[in-house]
């Protein structure tokens, strides 16, 4: 009998092009297989430092992004009312001419009337450069509504934080403790790292109200009450200090624990060179903390002063930090808290690691070995997105430091170009002048009230009120407040809102319905309160319908991108690495990469830094900028193949640079020298290597800041000291929250609503198969998460007598939604949650109006407001961390009640018309002959 011949190894492609994935922020390396010039298959690049060939569902489904029916096809000009979805396709010449006319008029009169904010674009060093050249103070990216608390707390405390700043020592960690990490963040590296831990028999502990994803494979799970992570961490610190289980040698050498603090002012005792002083253990004399030969005394004595560690002991050994005192609020029994502290201490000190590697510290002292505490922590948005998130993140960083487990074998490790002290970063700038660039970088780190972004009359200089008395350390801005403040004219009105890849009329905004109303509101003359809106995106998202001018972006396989050491690189702890994307295919639509569009606008407006004295363009497109731009002499967006092609970090622009990156798989690596892999902040060899790489121009060793003196300066201002004084209504808030040592206070919504009326906490999580709303229209990923129920604990399920298929009304102080419910057996009993950004508005993303995302999918955003409930004082208080302005998404409290089954989730929104229409029921195409 003849058997049919089956080709078991069909030819996948004619050609493979290597580039960088864009389906989340991991930035993994991918091999894009092409047949007849079309994408046939995407797989992981085994040589890439981030993923080493591993690729998740999102990355594999990238092929669906470039074939999505929702892709925008040409520039659009609005022809009907905002929100109608009525547009006319126009040429790029008209689109750029219109945008440059609008923006040019603003620049010539008052640049601050432009608010330019970008979403998760991964090119912030470039977009900030453009905004600075334009001259507006109103620029930031998405970090203010994501995880700025983690980044800011980490840099102020130790010069870096988790994720892009650092990683666990996956090869040596023996105990890994994970706080509040969503499953889409850093997913491939974390999954690979957890695999290494499991293979070695190391333990993993999850601290999260929700047990799913990473926490589902943890050896132990602490289902903490939302917003109380800081309380738990400070109790762990209490237990460790009470037991003497802290690394005294590490604290004395590498932190400001021995620095003398003036009892009268709370400021450091300093010498004439402004260096903090310590008591030398040998001589008993006051000395600068970094003086060669000094042996800092943690228990030093000087009249009217105490060491930082003495202040910490006085505070954290108080009874209110005992496990018994915090257990009920945390939802974790006291004995479990003590057991966790004991396990951390046992692993850190009884299972310490010692590597026989010699190194020299910043005081010139030679060490023959590297001692490691093999306890590593990782955290992200879960503990950040609360109004107490900055101090909670500070507490976690301080916990690591007390153990001596930061940048040591087995602990947390910095990724180049971090660590960097606060002093290595700019301070924020805000001086806007007609027809001139801004006076310096928009974003930075303030050292005291003198660096706030205020006008001469003391009012905020920025539309989002970043770096104001309301949120002094807002290093990423407050994107969630831009539309609300612009609509209210508080602190002033704007002319044009320019957004890139930020779905602010749907899942990226608190108070979604209210934001839609603000975008469409008119004044008494019938003019829009926000006069002009320019928006750029690759897809027909909900936000497109509210734009006056749409500038269509390419997909990620059709453009150049730069994953830069100036911005958010792909480094590993033992190597600095950056990467590119490049057009592996050409667009089949009339679209342009947004960064190139910005360059074209800059050339039309003749912005400084983009044109020469005669008005001739310096850069023709973004690829040209990547290669030829220099931020400082010899320092450009890419670190590899500089000069004649063999220079790394520093070197003249190399016209052949992009080709060299393409030939090496789209990335470049520079390995940290042997002996410099650990103790980077104090390691002489690392500091010299970092200077050679261009991270800074001279070595900048520093000590970790357990006590953050700039915060004390804000407290002192609130007490009446100094030239710059806060408004009266903010003095109490500043005194409370700007504590230089980590504290905990209840999330602000807890004090604004009655917990008896709203007894449940409501959270969102991002699933591994989605990232923000980027996978919304993806035909493969939609099959994994086509809709989202509200998950409730067994206690809530049984109390309300829910059954499979039931629906519920969920109510907050702001509004109500009606949603399907489902039982989750591993959930904090006082918490409900759902997947983020699954729900879509009918008509958007080229989805059918009966798509499950638009019928059974929903958002918790409708329950959240960008403002706190009114206090009766007539003031607008943002729903944010009062230190950084981080959006307090996870402070939300709700109540729930059973309702009859519904046909669709509520609240209802009318369908919006889409300029690309509705996609086919079945998405098919043919690749190859």
Walk me through this protein's architecture:
Residues 14-70 form the 4Fe-4S Mo/W bis-MGD-type domain. Its cofactor is [4Fe-4S] cluster. Its main location: other. The protein has 929 residues and is of the alpha/beta class. Among the domains are: 81-146 and 427-552, Rossmann fold, CATH 3.40.50.740; 161-418, Dimethylsulfoxide Reductase, domain 2 (3-Layer(aba) Sandwich); 749-899, Barwin-like endoglucanases, CATH 2.40.40.20. Helix content is 24%, strand content 15%. It has 24 helices and 33 strands. The strands form 10 sheets. Strands 5-4-24-23-22-6-7 form a 7-stranded mixed β-sheet, covered by helices on one side. Strands 28-32-29-31-30-33 form a 6-stranded mixed beta barrel. Strands 11-10-9-20 form a 4-stranded parallel β-sheet, sandwiched between helices. Helix 15 links the parallel strand 22 (496-500) and strand 23. Helix 7 packs antiparallel against helix 10, helix 7 crosses helix 11 and helix 20 packs antiparallel against helix 21. The radius of gyration is 27 Å and the shape is globular. The relative contact order is 0.15. The model has no long low-confidence stretch (mean pLDDT 96).
């Amino acid at each position: 009998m003849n058997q049919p011949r089956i080709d078991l190894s069909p030819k996948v492609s004619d050609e493979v092009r290597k580039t960088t994935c864009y389906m989340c922020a991991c930035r993994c390396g991918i091999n894009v297989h092409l047949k007849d010039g079309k994408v046939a298959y995407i797989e992981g690049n085994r040589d890439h430092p981030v993923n080493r060939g591993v690729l998740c569902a999102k990355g594999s489904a990238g092929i669906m992004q470039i074939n999505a029916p929702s892709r925008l096809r040409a520039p659009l000009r609005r022809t009907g009312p905002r929100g109608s979805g009525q547009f006319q396709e126009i040429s790029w010449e008209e689109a750029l001419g219109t945008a440059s006319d609008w923006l040019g008029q603003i620049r010539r009169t008052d640049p601050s009337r432009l608010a330019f904010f970008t979403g998760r674009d991964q090119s912030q060093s470039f977009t900030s450069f453009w905004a600075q050249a334009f001259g507006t103070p109103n620029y930031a990216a998405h970090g203010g509504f994501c995880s700025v608390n983690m980044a800011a707390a980490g840099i102020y405390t130790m010069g870096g934080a988790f994720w892009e700043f650092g990683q666990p020592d996956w090869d040596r960690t023996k105990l890994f403790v994970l706080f509040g990490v969503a499953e889409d963040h850093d997913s491939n590296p974390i999954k690979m790292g957890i695999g290494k831990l499991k293979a070695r028999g190391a333990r993993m502990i999850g601290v999260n109200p929700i047990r799913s994803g990473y926490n589902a494979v943890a050896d132990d799970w602490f289902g903490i009450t939302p917003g109380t992570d800081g309380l738990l961490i400070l109790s762990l610190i209490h237990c460790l200090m009470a037991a003497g289980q802290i690394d005294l040698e590490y604290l004395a050498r590498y932190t400001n624990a021995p620095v003398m603090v003036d009892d009268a002012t709370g400021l450091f005792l300093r010498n004439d060179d402004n260096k903090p002083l310590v008591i030398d253990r040998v001589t008993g004399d006051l000395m600068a903390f970094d003086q060669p030969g000094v042996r800092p005394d943690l228990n030093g004595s000087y009249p009217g002063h105490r060491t930082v560690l003495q202040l910490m002991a006085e505070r954290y050994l108080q009874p209110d930090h005992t496990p018994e005192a915090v257990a009920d609020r945390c939802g974790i029994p006291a004995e479990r808290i003590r057991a966790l502290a004991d396990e951390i201490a046992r692993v850190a000190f009884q299972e310490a690691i010692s590597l026989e590697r010699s190194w020299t510290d910043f005081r010139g002292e030679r060490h023959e070995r590297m001692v490691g505490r093999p306890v590593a922590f990782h955290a992200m948005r879960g503990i950040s997105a609360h109004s107490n998130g900055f101090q909670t993140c500070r507490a976690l960083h301080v916990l690591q430091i007390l153990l001596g487990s930061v940048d040591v074998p087995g602990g947390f490790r910095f990724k180049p170009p971090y660590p960097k002290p606060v002093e290595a970063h700019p301070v924020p700038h805000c001086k806007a002048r007609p027809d001139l660039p801004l006076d310096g970088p928009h974003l930075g780190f303030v050292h005291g009230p003198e660096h706030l972004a205020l006008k001469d009359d003391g009012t905020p200089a920025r539309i989002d009120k970043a770096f104001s008395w309301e949120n002094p350390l807002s290093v990423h801005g407050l994107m969630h407040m831009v539309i609300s403040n612009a609509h209210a004219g508080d602190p002033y009105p704007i002319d044009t809102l320019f957004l890139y890849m930020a779905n602010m009329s749907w899942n990226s905004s608190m108070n979604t319905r209210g934001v839609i109303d603000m975008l469409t509101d008119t004044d008494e003359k019938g003019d829009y309160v926000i006069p002009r809106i320019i928006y750029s995106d690759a897809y027909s998202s909900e936000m497109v319908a509210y734009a006056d001018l749409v500038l269509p972006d390419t997909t990620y396989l059709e453009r150049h991108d730069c994953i830069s050491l100036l911005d958010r690189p792909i480094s590993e702890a033992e190597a600095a690495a950056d990467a590119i994307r490049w057009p592996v295919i050409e667009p089949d639509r009339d679209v342009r990469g947004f960064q190139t569009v910005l360059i074209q606008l800059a050339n039309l407006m003749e912005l400084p830094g983009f044109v020469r004295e005669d008005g001739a363009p310096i850069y023709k497109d973004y690829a040209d900028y990547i290669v030829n731009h220099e931020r400082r002499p010899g320092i450009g967006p890419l670190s590899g193949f500089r000069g004649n092609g063999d220079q790394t970090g520093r070197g003249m622009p190399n016209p052949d640079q992009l080709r060299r990156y393409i030939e090496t798989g789209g990335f470049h690596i520079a390995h940290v020298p042997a002996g410099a892999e650990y103790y980077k902040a104090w390691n002489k060899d690392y500091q010299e290597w970092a200077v050679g790489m261009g991270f800074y121009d001279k070595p900048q060793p520093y000590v970790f800041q357990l006590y953050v003196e700039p915060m004390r300066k804000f407290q002192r201002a609130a007490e009446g000291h100094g030239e710059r004084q806060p408004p009266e209504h903010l003095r109490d808030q500043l005194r409370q929250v700007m504590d230089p040592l980590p504290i905990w206070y209840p999330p602000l919504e807890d004090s604004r609503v009655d917990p008896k009326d709203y007894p449940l906490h409501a959270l969102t999580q991002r699933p591994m198969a989605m990232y923000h709303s980027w996978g919304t229209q993806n035909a493969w990923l939609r099959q994994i998460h086509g809709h989202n129920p509200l998950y409730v604990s067994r206690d809530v399920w049984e109390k309300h007598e829910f059954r499979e298929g039931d629906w519920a009304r969920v109510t907050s102080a702001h509004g109500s939604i009606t949603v399907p419910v489902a039982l989750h057996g591993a959930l904090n009993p006082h918490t409900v949650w759902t997947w983020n950004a699954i729900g879509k508005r009918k008509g958007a993303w080229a989805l059918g109006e009966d798509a499950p995302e638009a019928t059974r999918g929903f958002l918790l955003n409708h329950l959240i407001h960008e403002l706190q409930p009114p206090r009766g004082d007539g003031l607008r208080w943002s729903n944010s961390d009062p230190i950084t302005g981080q959006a307090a998404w996870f402070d939300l409290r709700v109540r729930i009640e059973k309702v009859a089954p519904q046909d669709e989730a509520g609240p209802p929104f009318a369908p919006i018309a889409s300029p690309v229409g509705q996609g086919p029921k079945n998405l098919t195409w043919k690749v190859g002959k």
